[in-house]
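Table S2 (continued). Query chain:
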Amino acid sequence: MITEKDIYEALRKVKDPELGLDIVELNLIRSVKIDQEGVEILMTLTSPFCPFADSLIGDVEKEVGKIDGAGLVRVEITFDPPWEPSEELKEKLGL
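Corresponding output:
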């Protein structure tokens, strides 16, 4: 049986190409839901104009899709609320 922990482990393999950090560490994942059809991931991007949006979505679908029992992987993007780095992340990124 697939678990949320399995999904987050897979998502940690997806790196933001500009920042070099994984999307979980960047706090881009808003929610993960597992249902009969598969996995639904609600995520945001660092910017609505992110040039890597399609690549990141594809990587999320690919990595989560590798998990036995994942089924259909659906990714939805939201900007409500907009992404805001934590203070700890700002320090790590030198912001």
